[in-house]
């Protein structure tokens, strides 16, 4: 589940998932919705492997990787399939395709994923995250 939260200058996203894998996949889905509107197909994949001190840093690092591919080659994410995850490690395939103006439109310019009020936690059998994007 993805829920947009009010924020004064940026965009804040709250994610609730039954699994940690679902949390990261929903995060990529939310970021995609910020970047573009329209139909994005999982035509090709990019391998992503991240090692960070904790789950919060993994989320920020994942967002930075997605933005890197989007900004350098206009690769638009369709989904993220996780192949391995731990509190300090994340590996998976970022599926998507190059931006196609016939099927997609740019939505917001996302400058980055911030640490402002960043939160990733497991609580009562659910994974929850709150993340703010600089737009």
Describe the structure.
By secondary structure, the protein is an alpha+beta fold. Helix content is 26%, strand content 47%. It has helices at 20-35, 55-73, and strands at residues 2-5, 11-17, 36-38, 44-51, 75-86, 89-98, 104-106, 112-113, 119-123, 126-134. A hairpin with a 2-residue loop joins β9 (119-123) and β10. α1 (20-35) packs parallel to α2. The relative contact order is 0.27.
Fourth CATH level, the homologous superfamily: Archease domain
Total beta-strand segments: 10
Instruction: Please tell me the CATH architecture by its name.
Output: 3-Layer(bab) Sandwich
Task: Give a quick account of the main beta sheet: strands, pairing sense, barrel closure.
Answer: 5 strands, antiparallel
CA-based gyration radius: 14 Å
Unreliable segments (pLDDT under 50, ≥5 consecutive)? Answer: none
Percent in strands: over 45%
Q: In CATH terms, what is the fold-level topology?
A: Archease, Possible Chaperone, Chain: A, domain 1
| Gross morphology | globular
Mean pLDDT: 94
List the helices and strands and how they pair.
Elements: E1 2-5, E2 11-17, H1 20-35, E3 36-38, E4 44-51, H2 55-73, E5 75-86, E6 89-98, E7 104-106, E8 112-113, E9 119-123, E10 126-134
Kindly summarize this structure in a few lines.
This protein is of the alpha+beta class and 135 residues long. It has helices spanning 20-35, 55-73; strands at 2-5, 11-17, 36-38, 44-51, 75-86, 89-98, 104-106, 112-113, 119-123, 126-134. A hairpin with a 2-residue loop joins strand 9 and strand 10.
